[in-house]
Specification:
This protein has twelve helices and eight strands. The chain has 348 residues and is α+β, with helices and mostly antiparallel strands.
């Protein structure tokens, strides 16, 4: 009879502790949810810290809060029972998963809103962002999974060692693919060139059409598509003509020897006036360079800065300058020289 009473008292105590656990957890839950909602309502700024706080609060699920509070309350009331160890395991598992979920959201936000990615929304950036997110998530959730397994009581030393050896084997087998993969990330992050840029790499030149995970596709001027490895591109010197601030042009003019000296000294000023009157052109210098075999050589140097660095517009500007030079020289009676030979014949 006494044993039966002890069992009844123990069951009654468990029921009382269970009800107390539920009450404490519910009250604590309501208080925390009230504070959480108040914080969310008051954080309306768009600073990075506020955004990260909002992400953390949004990813902190209400059901998770309630379950954690329930387990923490049960841990307090049932600390003298054998179920206490099981409760500790469940608390650790939930915390590891929730923390991984929070970190995943914060890192995804930081990657997606990075200034290097905001400036360009084209396909290569989207591919890189997705790839970086995949790698970061794999690392975060792998660590969380290993911590959960270890917390259950399973020795993960052999598992980690096996994963390390397997990772090295995979890296050695796929080193070329991984090289191109990281080269793709370097291209997107460092941006030596982007889609629609005209580049020259060794004997390859053309407009970049697509930057993939392994290769970059370039459209050559002759029309064909060139497919280059990302690692090879980064290992070479890349000339990006799209990013030129201005183009330097050099024009050599040959003037006939029969020109008058007074007209000869006016040529640099004439050339400077022509350049100054042309849109997008900036005069640098004009000099009487040397005496040629059949002409007086002048060297004209100027810079052209056209919108969007358009090569066709650059050539149109250069054509206007050449037309104006020809027109002005014709008006001033300045003759262009061409290769000639004078043959002197004498009678002995």
């Amino acid at each position: 009879m006494e044993t039966k009473n002890l069992i009844m008292n123990e069951y009654l105590q468990i029921i009382i502790f269970g009800i107390a656990t539920l009450i404490v957890a519910s009250i604590s839950y309501l208080i925390l949810i009230w504070f959480k909602n108040r914080i969310v309502k008051k954080t309306k700024d768009n600073t990075i810290l506020i955004e990260l706080l909002n992400i953390a609060l949004n990813r902190l699920q209400n059901i998770v809060i309630f379950v954690l509070l329930l387990f923490f309350s049960a841990k307090i009331f049932f600390q003298n029972y054998t179920i206490g160890n099981t409760i500790n395991i469940f608390i650790s598992l939930i915390l590891f998963i929730q923390i991984a979920y929070l970190i995943d959201g914060i890192i995804s936000y930081l990657i997606s809103n990075n200034s290097k990615f905001q400036t360009n929304k084209k396909s290569q950036v989207k591919n890189a962002v997705s790839l970086i997110k995949f790698i970061s998530r794999s690392v975060i959730w792998s660590i969380a999974l290993l911590l959960c397994i270890e917390n259950i009581g399973i020795d993960i030393t052999a598992l980690v060692a096996g994963l390390g050896i397997g990772g090295i084997a995979i890296a050695l087998a796929a080193q070329n693919i991984l090289g191109d993969l990281f080269a793709s990330l370097a291209i997107v992050l460092d941006r030596p060139f982007e889609i629609d840029d005209y580049i020259v790499v060794g004997d390859i030149s053309g407009t970049v059409e697509h930057i993939g995970i392994k290769t970059t596709r370039i459209r050559a001027l002759s029309g064909e598509e060139l497919i280059c490895s990302n690692a090879d591109l980064l290992g070479s010197r890349v000339r990006n003509y799209k990013r030129m601030v201005e183009r330097r042009a050099v024009c050599n003019l040959g003037i006939v020897y029969q020109i008058d000296y007074k007209l000869l000294v006016k040529i640099p000023k004439i050339l400077e006036k022509i350049i100054d009157d042309i849109a997008y052109a900036r005069f640098d210098r004009a000099n009487f360079k040397s005496f040629g075999d059949s002409s007086l050589l002048f060297e004209l140097v100027y810079y052209v800065q056209v919108p969007d660095n358009d090569y066709n517009e650059y050539m149109n500007t250069q054509q206007k300058i050449n037309f104006e030079i020809f027109k002005k020289f014709e008006q001033e009676k300045i003759g262009f020289a061409y290769p000639t030979q004078t043959l002197h014949i004498s009678k002995d």
